[in-house]
Amino acid sequence: MPVPAAPLAEAATHCPYCALQCGMMLRATPESAAKEGTGKDDGPEPAGGRSPGPVTVLAREFPTNRGRMCQKGWTSAELLTAADRLTTPLMRPRRDAPLEPVSWERALDRITEGIIRLQREHGPDAVGVFGGGGLTNEKAYALGKFARVALRSSAIDYNGRFCMSSAAAAGIRSFGLDRGLPFPLEDIAHAGAVIMVGSNAAETMPPFMQYLTRQRENGGALVVVDPRLTATARAAALHLQITPGTDLALANGLAYIALTEGYANRDFLAARTTGLAELRAVLASYWPERVERITGVPVADQYAAVDLLAQAERAMVLSARGAEQHSKGTDTVTALINLALVLGLPGTPGSGYGCLTGQGNGQGGREHGQKADQLPGYRKIIDPVAREHIGRIWGVDPTTIPGPGRSAYEMLDALGTPQGPRALLILGSNIAVSAPRAGRITSRLAALDLLVVADFVLSETAAMADIVLPTAQWAEEEGTMTNLEGRVLRRERLRPPPAGVRTDLEIIAALAARLGHAERFPGEPRAVFDELRRASAGGIADYAGISYERITASDGVFWPCPDETHPGTPRMFLDRFATPDGRARLVPVEHRPVAEDIDPEYPYYLTTGRVLAHYQSGAQTRRIGPLVDAAPEPFVEIHPDLAERLGIAEGAPVRVTSRRGTCEVPARLTDTLRFDTVFLPFHWAGAGRANSLTNDALDPTSRMPEFKVCAVAVEPIDDPDDNPDDDRHATGSVPTATVGAAEPVRAMLTGRSQPSGRHQG
Ligand SMILES: Nc1nc2c(c(=O)[nH]1)N[C@H]1C(S)=C(S)[C@@H](COP(=O)(O)OP(=O)(O)OC[C@H]3O[C@@H](n4cnc5c(=O)[nH]c(N)nc54)[C@H](O)[C@@H]3O)O[C@H]1N2
Ligand SMILES: Nc1nc2c(c(=O)[nH]1)N[C@H]1C(S)=C(S)[C@@H](COP(=O)(O)OP(=O)(O)OC[C@H]3O[C@@H](n4cnc5c(=O)[nH]c(N)nc54)[C@H](O)[C@@H]3O)O[C@H]1N2
Ligand SMILES: [Mo]
């Protein structure tokens, strides 16, 4: 292992959380440098061992955040010194025994023995890898290569499948490639109209809101489509309070209006698209009254939204998880792209369609090969030319590179079965909390012969592992991230990890070395990045011209950037789309119902999402004092009228039940959501785990699960001890309070013509 460089007094880096990648400055307090660990120790942390001191976080003037950050960013450094931070590998002496500290040698030897034995008995695919969109580009690249070269396994996928995979699949189908935002954030401030479909950026990317504020100050209008009146929707001129799971019909309906009202951009359609006739034929059945019946969005509001978009000189259609995390997410985004194309927005300067990618490296994480069907440079693993090129870079015979593996949920669902992996290595995901139908997934994890998790804390998933490896945090290692704009940026290291802790790259390198591939896996991020550049050269996501030096000296570089003299590509598609003929595809798509609709037994829609103070599975933010104070516990949002009907008071314990499990949380009564819909944030484990309920129905193209809608029953908990088991099935007991409630709710809906659009200003 190379000797780590000395700690810095100050490091220019980026927030460890979302895809906005706010620029931040980290400053070591004087005593922390003195108490520094070297990161080189190869044994358990001695009792009372060294612990590095606190770090101060300052916001930087970076083009994404322009000096601002949210509460998560300001408090992010607290996790560096969290009381329960892992500083030694942990291992179970026996399957049923508790985790105990062990040396790195023993932990790595035990993992290697397990891998070799399971692969000898069951073949290479017996060992699987699960990565994350929070990992740096270097780690995502190394992990994909580790699976294909060191393990020769096809079983690798990652949590990005649960995130923006539907938008990615739709972007590839319509435009020929997927870059979340094909334009810089700055363009949003100058758009005359923006429609945001299923994004609550006010809570999920607070510093992003300054672009919408500036957009409004510039005279622009915002339309928000969300079943809830969120903080984001409050900033809108028009809020469309849609029935969950019906965005596809709405998008088709808005495109219908654009075509029939003469708003279609005929020159653009003729010059830059194909498929208009076929699209027109499908859109013909999406007349406004029918769309109102499906979506609940009043006809007048549909017209108002199209008027705003069509009359603006520059306009944007943006989507996020609310529209995408559905079993028809790919087609829903396709319908939104069709709307944008009919209006002539994509590839037009200042206008366009974009997906607001979520995780810190959600964009880069989907480009470098940790995806089941992909090789670095956003290449297809089935493409013989790509296999040839990558085989050369990796120094292996291309025929030895495995073919495509299963998608994230399908791989997890098969764990421990004769068809699936018997060992799993997880870096950067806490699936025991965040996977859909999580009761099923934890039972699959428990069925494994070997579960290895690398994390900085004992997440709920790590707590199930046979071996846990303590890994470095963002301030303790270098690396690059690619933000939601496709901007490749640099993380600078403030100080080495605490004694006993290794970086993910060092862990991958050490395992690869034990599997006989010592030379092929450098543990140094720069060496990995240089290889990544060469591997990506000539691919879709081409990083060949991007270097650490360039992105340190600048505000990052946008891919594609094929050589060092190339300026990078902030705006894409200006001349042509990335399809063979250069034209965007209008792909006709039909609305279809949600995978699990409400019925008398499960009469309400459940939707899930986020709150400002917590990040994802909460593994990181549930350990940070000010964030726990801001949002101490899980809750379910219920409309006061529905709560009254069910006999539920504010703060009272509520049981939410789906065909897959139950969740018990206090009620939060609010009239900001539809009264046929309840909302659960998914940041908590245990009885408050939202994913005990969610549906594992998958999108046929992206394999995205239907996180955003399933059918549930809701009842007050009279006897708190009466707690039915998780993952029960439809045959289980039916909560009496809600039997047959679907009809009264429908009557309420029609009786009060809920929901209605909301006009302001
Ligand atoms: N505070 C915080 N910020 C985060 C994260 C976090 O966990 N916490 N995670 C990051 C990541 S990885 C991601 S992916 C992003 C996610 O960012 P967002 O997509 O903004 O987050 P969500 O809360 O999942 O969903 C957004 C909205 O979709 C709405 N919605 C639910 N169902 C539907 C529907 O059928 N149609 C429509 N139109 N809307 C619907 C919900 O009511 C919710 O307000 O946030 C990133 N930023
Ligand atoms: N019901 C419902 N479920 C959802 C969603 C939803 O909207 N509703 N959203 C989905 C989405 S969009 C996403 S992105 C997923 C996210 O869900 P997860 O994949 O569980 O994401 P995190 O909670 O960020 O988990 C990251 C874990 O890895 C650790 N970690 C962070 N960085 C690193 C690193 O660099 N190296 C290593 N080794 N470990 C690291 C953290 O401590 C944490 O334990 O959840 C999905 N689940
Ligand atoms: Mo995400």
Automatic annotation (TrEMBL):
<protein>
    <submittedName>
        <fullName>Assimilatory nitrate reductase (NADH) alpha subunit apoprotein</fullName>
        <ecNumber>1.7.1.1</ecNumber>
    </submittedName>
</protein>
<keyword id="KW-0479">Metal-binding</keyword>
<dbReference type="GO" id="GO:0016020">
    <property type="term" value="C:membrane"/>
</dbReference>
<dbReference type="InterPro" id="IPR006963">
    <property type="entry name" value="Mopterin_OxRdtase_4Fe-4S_dom"/>
</dbReference>
<dbReference type="GO" id="GO:0046872">
    <property type="term" value="F:metal ion binding"/>
</dbReference>
<dbReference type="GO" id="GO:0003954">
    <property type="term" value="F:NADH dehydrogenase activity"/>
</dbReference>
<feature type="region of interest" description="Disordered">
    <location>
        <begin position="33"/>
        <end position="55"/>
    </location>
</feature>
<dbReference type="GO" id="GO:0009703">
    <property type="term" value="F:nitrate reductase (NADH) activity"/>
</dbReference>
<feature type="compositionally biased region" description="Polar residues">
    <location>
        <begin position="751"/>
        <end position="761"/>
    </location>
</feature>
<dbReference type="InterPro" id="IPR009010">
    <property type="entry name" value="Asp_de-COase-like_dom_sf"/>
</dbReference>
<keyword id="KW-0560">Oxidoreductase</keyword>
<dbReference type="GO" id="GO:0051539">
    <property type="term" value="F:4 iron, 4 sulfur cluster binding"/>
</dbReference>
<dbReference type="InterPro" id="IPR006655">
    <property type="entry name" value="Mopterin_OxRdtase_prok_CS"/>
</dbReference>
<keyword id="KW-0411">Iron-sulfur</keyword>
<dbReference type="InterPro" id="IPR006657">
    <property type="entry name" value="MoPterin_dinucl-bd_dom"/>
</dbReference>
<dbReference type="Pfam" id="PF01568">
    <property type="entry name" value="Molydop_binding"/>
</dbReference>
<dbReference type="InterPro" id="IPR050123">
    <property type="entry name" value="Prok_molybdopt-oxidoreductase"/>
</dbReference>
<dbReference type="Pfam" id="PF04879">
    <property type="entry name" value="Molybdop_Fe4S4"/>
</dbReference>
<dbReference type="Pfam" id="PF00384">
    <property type="entry name" value="Molybdopterin"/>
</dbReference>
<feature type="region of interest" description="Disordered">
    <location>
        <begin position="716"/>
        <end position="761"/>
    </location>
</feature>
<feature type="compositionally biased region" description="Basic and acidic residues">
    <location>
        <begin position="33"/>
        <end position="43"/>
    </location>
</feature>
<dbReference type="GO" id="GO:0043546">
    <property type="term" value="F:molybdopterin cofactor binding"/>
</dbReference>
<dbReference type="InterPro" id="IPR006656">
    <property type="entry name" value="Mopterin_OxRdtase"/>
</dbReference>
<keyword id="KW-0004">4Fe-4S</keyword>
<feature type="domain" description="4Fe-4S Mo/W bis-MGD-type">
    <location>
        <begin position="8"/>
        <end position="82"/>
    </location>
</feature>
<feature type="compositionally biased region" description="Acidic residues">
    <location>
        <begin position="716"/>
        <end position="725"/>
    </location>
</feature>
<dbReference type="GO" id="GO:0022904">
    <property type="term" value="P:respiratory electron transport chain"/>
</dbReference>
<keyword id="KW-0408">Iron</keyword>
